[in-house]
Design a protein that fits this description.
The complex is a heterodimer.
Chain A (H helix, E strand, L loop, with lengths): L4 E5 L2 E5 L5 H7 L23 E4 L2 E4 L10 E3 L3 H17 L14 H8 L16 E3 L3 E4 L8 H5 L9 E4 L6 E4 L1 H5 L3 H10 L5 E3 L12 H4 L4 H12 L1
Chain B lengths: L8 H19 L6 H12 L4 H11 L3 H8 L13 E6 L2 H5 L2 H12 L12 E6 L11 E3 L2 E3 L4 H13 L28 E3 L12 H7 L3 H10 L12 H10 L6 E6 L8 H8 L1 H15 L3 E6 L7 H13 L4 E4 L4 E9 L9 H8 L23 E5 H13 L1 H5 L9 E8 L5 E6 L4 H7 L5 E6 L5 E4 L17 E6 L4 H15 L5 H18 L5 H17 L3 H5 L2 H9 L1 H7 L12 H4 L1 H7 L5 H5 L1
Parallel strand pairs in B: 1-2, 5-12, 6-7, 6-10, 7-9, 11-15
Antiparallel strand pairs in B: 1-3, 3-4, 8-9, 11-12, 13-14, 13-15
The chains are: A alpha+beta, B alpha/beta.
């Protein structure tokens, strides 16, 4: 068996497999590091930066950074948590997020992170950008809610490897661009997958809504991240 | 015999298909060449039509959105039909200082349309672009890729009149610059303005000597010599070149590549342009030496789109080198094969970042990669790649010829050798200065004949804005590091205008991948405007500093990690300027001015805004 790497998160000794990222290793050790753009099974891209940690004074995204021997990771220190909170707030003011009217409310990872980080009012001024909603045969794409995490870009492809979702423009104008012809051929299942992979309410499957009532959704019971932390509690109790 | 009726729509279709087929035949059916395809298609008609995108997507096995993503990423690619003449006026700070506003207005007046638009007759499109590397001869513009420098109202009038006559753009260039700018394959009005030629890059150079000498050494010895010379990367980051080559050589698997980064986009930097104009062979020999050192057979010169006018000339230099046997097969008869290709950029500052440059060289959006793996491990085509700056490679050539000892006798112990500076802004003698490291800002200001200097921007917008208190500081890696950009501001200048220009630059050039850089810089600009408008408080100064630190810390690449520097360094070095703008009595002033916000509504309804409303 290959030898494991010893490293530390906020002083806690942890073990990692060689090649594991800080995020993966933290999770395996029952430590929650918040993520938004990352989705297990997809290649991490480090776009949201919410998983930022500090190692020897240097900031890095834990979803892309591999663990090295003896690494001292700062995760739940006040400054790291403060910076993450700021990034979540940036996402709120950069788009138009109105939770009460959103189908994804309660299942939305951005909303869940805002609750976990106890965001009352963002420190930044709202940008109120003008964004549109696009309709495709099986799904809707609401650019107001998109956080440019690129999960759909990475996850949804045709059988011959063409991207149905791709990035368009750059800087603040960057947006998801859907190939209309290829999107028209997407099956109900693929649309469902696209909706599920979207962390927010940007991609919504058509003709279904509020199947699970608000109040009984994923994050209505427990805060995001608690599934990882509970596992750790369980280990401790054994 | 085939007969085409040009009035029938399928004539154009036939034409289209044939040009795409021709491209695929010329370059191969490989997405690696996507940007080349797009540039060639655009060269034919001025833009890339949807039909072409569709055909290209089919041929390359891509979706149309993937190709649209590439087109919309770059400044100089477009899917919208522009005018016959496309003017890209440079909006960098040195252009602003030299009267860009006046030139812009006169373009608008003469063309009859505003910037961002095409004239009604479809003749002229007016656009702005970030620094084009002509800061010592501003205001400058690219018109259909031809460089126009030192523009003024009269020249604009003349140029637009010529456009109306249908004159080819190249023929509008009446006077050529100095040196190789006069070469028949260049014929540019660009001036070199070499004010101080130093002993390294602009020193004695015998073509072919360095590469022959290197090939008599073992590759490890070449690396050792460069390491001994303590050559640090000249692009700005200062990574030890010998170490980079060693890392790259140590990667055993796969093909190895050398890339010369000629995408200098940092506003105020134009030294690589002059090096490529006057010392191209020194750079190319440096690439071959690097190739020999790391074990590569192919080198790419990634040339920024703005320097398209140098492409034919550089290709000619390469061809001459091949004919002389110092490039290509069996170089100098010593059994080493190495060749160089030129890859054109398409306009994106972020492509100066080495991993973004590699993405772009692979025909994709120029978005930086996550590291590790580093380019020396997995770079171009996921193979070990060393990416070095133009000046670094030229310097390496001279180190091989003259030896590490000679090189280390110049500069300081940490920062050996010389640095080519591009100086612009408020001074009598803007241009190129090759100086030894360790020169103080004060000495530099005297050399360039700058008077009443308020501030010196060292290293461009991503660098440091120095006040008089710092004029004894030295230009070197352990004090003031710079990729070569030095912009001088005298006491008549408003530093707030400078900071605003720089912030706009970063907002425009952010690739948009990560949140702190994409959204954070827009928010930083908003806060800055609040302060600049006299609506800031002490709390706002604290906040803008804190926000800047968040962006610096959490951004994904060097662009975001340095983008708040215009604010942070002026705040540190010119704090009194910010303090003079804020309201020291107020604890809090809201983001927006209520009176101003309701002014239009008041006018429409005919009601008056009164003080009570403000406190309601």
């Amino acid at each position: 068996m290959p030898e494991k790497i010893k490293f530390f998160i906020d002083g806690k000794e942890c073990l990692a497999e060689r090649g594991q990222t800080i995020y993966e290793a933290a999770k395996a050790n029952g430590v929650y590091i918040p993520i938004l753009c990352h989705f297990e099974g997809l290649k991490p891209v480090g776009s949201c930066r919410i998983c930022s940690v500090r190692v020897n004074g240097r900031w890095m995204a834990s979803c892309t950074q591999p663990v090295t021997e003896g690494m001292m990771v700062e995760n739940q220190t006040p400054e790291v948590e403060e910076y993450r909170k700021a990034i979540i707030e940036m996402l709120f003011v950069e788009g138009n997020h109105f939770c009460p009217t959103c189908e994804k409310s309660g299942n939305c990872e951005l909303q869940a992170l805002a609750y976990r980080y106890q965001i009352m009012v963002p420190r930044f001024p709202y940008l109120f950008p003008r964004k549109d909603v696009e309709a495709f045969p099986t799904f809707l794409l609401d650019h107001n809610r998109c956080v440019q995490c690129r999960r759909c870009v990475r996850a949804i492809e045709t059988k011959d490897g063409r991207k149905i979702f791709a990035m368009k423009n750059r800087s603040g104008q960057v947006r998801i661009n859907v190939d209309r012809k290829l999107a028209a051929k997407m099956s109900e299942e693929e649309a469902q997958k696209a909706m599920e992979i979207c962390p927010v309410g940007a991609i919504l499957k058509k003709e279904v809504g509020f199947k699970v009532p608000i109040g009984k959704r994923k994050y209505d019971f427990k805060p995001i991240g608690s599934e990882i932390e509970e596992k750790s509690e369980g280990v401790k109790n054994e | 015999m085939l007969f085409y009726d040009i009035n029938k729509p399928n004539f154009m279709q036939g034409f289209l298909m044939s040009s795409i087929k021709r491209l695929l035949k010329k370059y191969g059916k490989n997405r690696l060449h996507l940007i080349t395809f797009l540039k060639e298609l655009q060269a034919e008609k001025g833009f890339i039509a949807e039909k072409e995108v569709q055909k290209l997507a089919e041929a390359l096995g891509l979706s149309m959105t993937e190709i649209e993503g590439v087109i919309t990423f770059y400044h100089f690619l477009t899917d919208k039909k522009p005018g016959k003449y496309v003017v890209y006026l440079n909006n960098s700070i040195t252009s602003e200082m030299a009267g860009m506003e006046e030139v812009a207005r006169s373009f608008e007046q003469e063309a009859g349309c505003r910037f961002g638009e095409t004239s009604a007759d479809g003749l002229i499109t007016l656009l702005q672009t970030s620094c084009i590397g002509m800061n010592d001869q501003e205001p400058a513009a690219l018109i259909n890729d031809v460089v126009f420098t030192c523009l003024n109202q009269e020249k604009v009038k003349k140029i637009v009149a010529w456009m109306r006559q249908g004159k080819p753009v190249q023929e509008m260039v009446e006077e050529f610059g100095d040196g190789a700018n006069r070469h028949e394959l260049v014929r540019a009005m660009v001036k070199n303005n070499i004010r101080k030629a130093g002993p390294v890059v602009f020193g004695d150079f015998k073509p072919g000597e360095a590469i022959r000498k290197a090939l008599d050494m073992a590759p490890e010895e070449v690396i050792e010599e460069v390491k001994k010379a303590n050559l640090l990367g000249r692009g700005g980051a200062g990574f030890p070149t010998g170490l980079k080559w060693e890392f790259c050589r140590k990667e055993k698997n796969g093909e190895h590549y050398v890339i010369c980064n000629a995408d200098e986009g940092e506003p105020g930097t134009f030294k690589d342009r002059v090096i490529l104009t006057e010392r191209p062979q020194m750079v190319f020999e440096g690439m071959a030496i690097a190739g020999y050192a790391v074990g590569a057979k192919l080198g790419l010169l990634y040339l920024r789109h703005e320097y398209t006018y140098l492409k034919k000339y550089l290709e000619h230099v390469l061809q001459k080198m091949r004919e002389e046997g110092i490039l290509g097969q069996n170089i100098a008869g010593k059994g080493f094969d190495f060749d160089i290709e030129i890859k054109m950029g398409a306009g994106a500052y972020v492509c100066g970042e080495e991993s973004a440059l590699i993405e772009s060289a692979e025909g994709k959006r120029g978005e930086p990669r996550d590291r590790p793996p580093f380019p020396v491990q997995k770079g171009y085509l996921n193979q070990p790649t060393t990416v070095n700056n133009v000046e670094t490679l030229a310097t390496a050539t001279q180190i091989i010829t003259h030896g590490a000892g000679w090189f280390r006798s110049m500069g300081t112990p940490v920062s050996a050798g010389t640095k080519v500076l591009s100086v612009s802004g408020d001074c009598e003698k803007p241009g190129i200065y090759e100086v030894e490291f360790g020169l103080t800002i004060k000495e530099l200001l005297e050399m360039v004949e700058a008077r009443d200097t308020l501030a010196v921007q060292v290293g461009g917008p991503s660098g440091n804005c120095i006040s008089e208190a710092g004029f004894d500081r030295k230009i070197c890696y352990s004090d003031l590091a710079t990729g070569g950009s030095i912009i001088i501001f005298n006491k008549t200048r408003d530093l707030f205008a400078v900071v605003r220009n720089f912030l706009d630059f970063f907002i425009e050039e952010s690739c948009g991948w990560c949140v702190p850089c994409r959204a954070g810089n827009v928010l930083l600009r908003k806060k800055f405007e609040k302060i600049a408008a006299g609506r800031g408080t002490l709390q706002d100064l604290k906040e803008i500093e804190a926000w800047g630190k968040i962006i610096k810390s959490t951004s994904r690449c060097g662009l975001g990690q340095t983008s708040p520097n215009p604010v942070l360094t002026t705040l540190a070095n010119f704090r009194e300027l910010y303090e003079s703008r804020i309201n020291k009595e107020a604890d809090f002033i809201p983001e927006f001015d209520l009176k101003e916000a309701v002014a239009e509504a008041c006018e429409i309804t005919g009601r008056k805004f009164t003080e009570e409303h403000e406190h309601a």
